[in-house]
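EI: anyone free to look at a 106-residue chain?
SC: sure, send it
EI:
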Amino acid sequence: MAATNTEGPRACMAKIEALLQRYPSNPWTENKSAWDACRKELQRLILTEGGSFKDDWQGAQIRLWGFKATSTTGIEGAARNWIAQVRAKLTTEGDAAASATEAAGR
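SC: here you go
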C-alpha cells in the first residue's frame, strides 16, 4: 500500500472545522448575514485549497484533496461530510501503519 500525503487534508480539515464552529446553527432564526459571511468564507477556503464546489437549490458538493462529499443541506453539510470522510480515511491509514509497524517488530 502506497503512503498517502496526509498533511494537506489534515491541515485543511482543521481550517474547515474552525470555520464551521463560527457558523450560526440556523440561518433563519439567527443572524443571516453572519451565516452568509461564513458560507462565503468556506467557499473561498475551498477554492484557495485548490478544490471546487457546487452549492445550489439541490444541495452541495465539495471536491477537495482527492475527497468528494455531498449534502442536500448545503455547503455546510457537505463540509461536515467531507471532514468525516477525511477523518475516516486518516484513521484507517493510521491503523494500517500501526499494524505494519507492529508486524515488523515481531
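EI: The beta strands are 52-56, 59-64, 67-71.
SC: 👍
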